[in-house]
Q: What sequence folds into this?
DNA sequence: TGTGTGATAGTCT
DNA sequence: GACTATCACACAT
């Protein structure tokens, strides 16, 4: 289904994280799991920066966990948090410049039965309306940390074939204590799958 | 529709 | 030893 020319190229990710975040809204996240494609439309994201962003993992420099954020854009940065949840990000910017975009919510499009099974819930709206929920629904775990998102493999991102018919809203980021003044959260207006309103 | 709280384990100081 | 880019559930409105 996902044709090769629709997969987003490296150049898309080698931009400022805020730019990538805004552009990522409406794109399709594809998880290829045992030959089955689980697809969700990205409806909510947040941008994270480097030394200039106190909310970012990269704020205090390179560590074992965050080093992907300092590499070239277009790779999956997957980390474990709150003792229970995985969060999925895409790295952004050129080599040496820290940045990433957190996927906060998806609208389930394909493979919904598998997502329901992975999540243990039926209600469509509860499947992928949060960063920890969407990773559980798509089976995204630490083993996918570092995957190249520009290659059509286990995990990648495509343009949608349908033309985007939506309005992107900007707001404050969620679930952080610092850097709250930065309007770096982007989501689709009135979309039912956005994590918080 | 919203607020409050406990669970849980990896990461960093 | 403290903190966390979260979630689910309880309970009130």
A:
């Amino acid at each position: 289904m996902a044709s090769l020319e629709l997969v987003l190229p490296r150049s898309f990710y080698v931009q400022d994280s805020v730019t990538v975040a805004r552009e990522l809204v409406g794109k399709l996240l594809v998880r290829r799991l045992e030959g089955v494609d689980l697809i969700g439309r990205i409806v909510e994201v947040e941008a994270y920066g480097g030394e200039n962003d106190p909310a970012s993992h990269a704020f205090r420099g390179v560590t074992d966990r965050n080093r992907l954020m300092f590499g070239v854009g277009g790779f999956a940065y997957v980390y474990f948090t709150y003792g229970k949840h995985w969060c999925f990000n895409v790295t952004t910017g050129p080599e040496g410049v820290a940045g990433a975009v957190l996927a906060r919510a998806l609208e389930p499009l394909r493979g919904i039965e598998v997502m329901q099974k992975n999540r243990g819930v039926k209600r469509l709206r509860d499947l992928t309306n949060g960063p920890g929920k969407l990773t559980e629904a798509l089976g995204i775990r630490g083993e996918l940390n570092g995957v190249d998102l520009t290659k059509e493999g286990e995990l990648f991102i495509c343009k949608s074939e349908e033309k985007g018919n939506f309005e992107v809203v900007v707001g404050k980021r969620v679930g952080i204590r610092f850097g709250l003044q930065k309007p770096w959260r982007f989501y689709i207006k009135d979309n039912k799958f956005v994590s918080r309103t």
Observations:
- The two ends of chain A are 32 Å apart (CA to CA).
- Strands of chain A lie at 28-33, 36-48, 76-81, 85-91, 100-110, 155-158, 168-171, 185-188.
- The domain at 4-188 of chain A is CATH 3.10.300.10 (3-methyladenine DNA Glycosylase; Chain A).
- The mean pLDDT of chain A is 95.
